[in-house]
Amino acid sequence: MTPNMKCKYLSVMALAFVLGLQTPVATAAVPQNPIDLTYAAENAVNSVVYIKVTTNGRTETVQYRDPFGFEDFFGDFFGRGNGGNQQRKIQTPKRTGAGSGVILTEDGYIVTNNHVVQDADEMTVKLNDNREYKARIIGLDKTTDLALIKIEAQGLPAIKVANSDNLKLGEWVLAIGNPFSLTSTVTAGIVSAKARSLGATPGSIESFIQTDAAINPGNSGGALVNARGELVGINAMLYSQTGSYSGYGFAIPTSIMNKVVEDLRKYGTVQRALLGISGSDVSAYIDAEKEKGKEVDLGTVNGIYVAEVSADGAAYEAGLKAGDVITQVDGKKIEKFGELQEMMVSHRPGDKITVTYIRDKKVHTATLTLRNIQGTTVAVQTLDTESLGAALRPLNEKEMRELNLPYGLLISAIRDGKLKEAGLTKGMILMKINEREMRSLKDFDEVVKAANLSTDRVLWVRAKTQKRHEPLLCR
């Protein structure tokens, strides 16, 4: 786990009475032997890896205020007028962290948590048999806290993936990972809750499996498996006031992981399908209104209360309004907001769904065509360039508006390669290459191909965070 890991913890008399009855009593079948989890552990442990992450030192600009107030006086006296606030550049030290990952394919695709690898400049993956490989990032998704990385290897022990929707409360599960850098650690527990939302990160998608299997620092990105050793979740966080296990662990279900990993591998980014609403559990809304002294009768006590409908979203187009209560999606009952989020994650923009909702105590249905964050049904894609060593994606409309930029390609991940050698870093925005505006991934692809055909094979890159042009040999 990285340093910023969020990481982010019957009576004898009664029995005698029953035996004294003359009529037979129907009893439920009770297992004669305790459940054996050894097969599950042995079957899954080799599919869980240890990930060491190195983050290089960086120069960062921070706001500084003179604690003695001298800058207030002299700043005003000399007309600088900065109110005592200054900008200073600081050098952060090189850092290392560790976490876990799960092998999904025999050729080296590994799923882990976004917070484990998001700041990585270098990653080393250690298998359970002690073989080590350098890894690279394929894609990151902060919203679900998932990441896909890749090592160059064959014949790896890929884990079998099960459908987390089939998990039942009280079912036995194992958490496998590398807590405190202790490799290949297995802990057991049960499924304590499903579709759990914690509100830990604003804007995140949360529909966790809650378990009492011990999850500690270093377990992040590891496997939560069922009694057959099949993957049902990716360990993500613990709930603790001490930073260590205290009985509450949370894992991202495979029902979310499957679609996210598939999108990262195919597109380099997640194709997020949105309803275009904000809301809460009906029960939470009713409780909040009661605290205000108001009585609410929505015609149901279960479902999702719609607080707001986005004017450019799918729900608005289908006629949903604030105050409606969504009770089903595609015929499946929805009682928690986490369940709705989990269902939306499995869809892509352009998919059609049927929503059942209550308005004025009457049941209605509507068919919606889901959209992405830009309000369209077009797939968004990033470009991963092997030789240049970077993953790129176009700025979305929100980013362009906040940065006051008309276009640009964001470096969403960078590793050893020509761009890194030229001094470009993750988070920079490519504006022009060889004087061509970088408005799309097609622009980048074409200018690189043209440079490869050129005799000098040089790319002149202009990035938003750098005012100089960077020469780059494209080989």
TrEMBL record:
GO molecular function, one term: serine-type endopeptidase activity
Gene3D superfamilies: 2.30.42.10, 2.40.10.120
Signal peptide: none
Domain PDZ: 285-361
GO BP, one annotated term: protein quality control for misfolded or incompletely synthesized proteins
GO cellular component, one term: periplasmic space
Keyword vocabulary terms for this entry: Hydrolase, Protease, Repeat, Serine protease, Signal
Coiled-coil region list: none
Family recorded in the similarity comment: Belongs to the peptidase S1C family.
Protein name, as recorded: Serine protease MucD
Classification of source organism: unclassified sequences, metagenomes, organismal metagenomes
